[in-house]
Amino acid sequence: MSLLFVTTNDGKVREATDYLDADVEQFDYDYAEIQSDDLAEIAARGARESREAAGGDDPVIVDDSGLFISDLDGFPGPYSSYVEDTLGIERVWELASDLDDRSAAFRCAVAYADGETVETFEGAVPGRIVAPRGTGGFGFDPIFEHDGETYAEMSTARKNELSHRGRALEQLADWLAAE
Hints:
The chain has helices at about 10-20, 40-55, 80-85, 90-95, 155-160, 165-179, and strands at about 1-5, 25, 60-70, 75, 105-115, 115-130, 145, 150. Strands 1, 2, 3, 4, 5, 6, 7 and 8 form an eight-stranded mixed beta sheet that branches. By secondary structure, it is of the alpha+beta class. The longest helix has 16 residues, at about 40-55. The chain is globular and about 50 Å long. Belongs to the HAM1 NTPase family. GO terms for molecular function: nucleoside triphosphate diphosphatase activity. Pfam families: Ham1p_like.
């Protein structure tokens, strides 16, 4: 089976290849991302549009991810990329630093589209928001702590073992194997 992963990120394609028993190819397509608080809805809509744009017989997968801070009602959630670009991680840390409960989660929804079928799969990694630490990773990694270590302090291999995207891809792999 061949799958098209709609992304410009080579790392996501490598991660998908690790989880899926399929030939995963990168499909560089800029679908219109709807504004929604629901990652699965965003990914599903992107997968439908991308499948149509691909025009072939191969199914497509699209992912959408975000950092969800519990006591901020899930903010920044699906708007994480925009918030990182506009406010930055330091400001998000300042917003969270006075919260009684700084629990958070990285969440991901992967949508699979094959003709009329669209299925979504979700993964999450629990943690908490802390003052920025570490030099690795990207995005909110320096302020997201899981088991005493920020994502920015972890090796890439360790972070990938915990991956919210990996957890969603694992569910997709199980579903594909059962089909």
